[in-house]
Please model this.
Amino acid sequence: MAKKLVLAIDRDDDLGRKAGIKSPVIGRDKNLDAAIKLALSDPEDSDVNTIFGAIKVYDELKREGEDVEIATVCGDEKVGVVSDSKISEQLDKIAKKTGATRVIVVTDGSEDEFVLPLISSRFKIDAVSRVVVKQSKTIESTYFMIKKMLSDPKIARITLVPIGIVLLVYSIFSIARYPEWGSGAIALALGLYLILKAYGLETSIENYFLALKTALVEGRISFITYVLSVMLLVIGIVQGIGFASSVYESYPAVSLVVTVSAFIYSAIWWIVGSGISTAMGRALDLIIEKKSFRKYITISVLLISVGLIFWGSCAFILSGYGILNIPAETAFQYLIFSIFGAAILAFMVVVPS
Model:
């Protein structure tokens, strides 16, 4: 049993994804083998230097007569809750196997250090060693370093997507001869992007376009419904923005809630139709493959239920401001009908399952 542990961190599991090595990796020989395999797989990966740096620290402590062990823990490509949960499990295994109570953490000085609280809850941290690769300071080397960074899909998505959103949104409004709306639209688009990024929903969008590509290559009928869903979503957003803009121009004193309600009221059924189109496309694929498709029927009905609630609520709000030519009593009836209708539809598909 070792008293001290040298711990290398690979939060996004490059070791597992690129070298096929399962973590935790415990012992000098195993870590050396893992570092070599990762270096052969991707010589430019910073985690290679992290593991070699940990081995160097381990060797130095050994020469000084320290009772020490070395280990590498890896998380997951989905950095965040998923990766940190895996690292927590591995830390418990290492603590039980080595009996170490003190740790020296070796990282590449980036996102890996976010797991330090997880480590400190299990070991006493004696030191944190940051391994930074030396780079030439010439302009040419900086150019190639940036070029290599942007060739990494993970870094490219983080840096290039926001820039692409800004340029795309501004160009659309410039072509439409509304450049003064560009800044507001850019803020809206970036805000949506950050929300999607914060909750990991960008993965769902990537999966959607991957499914679209697969459907085209394999000649599935869902390709048509996927394309249709995109068009319905675009139509809904455009129509919603148009109606919300007209409401704002006609009633400049209305609140933000009313403007948003106008957008939802006009766009909701197009958006619901987009979701149903995607679900039905997948259901048709499963029918052809003679597999169960009940889940996608349930999803479609639940989308209709949500649409009813949003539609009824927004109609009630807009009629209260006189924006919709609907009597208050009728608007209230719409609201009650939409709530009960949504509840009944949801009950019909959820309870039997």
User: Anything to note?
Assistant: Residues 256-288 form the longest helix (33 residues).
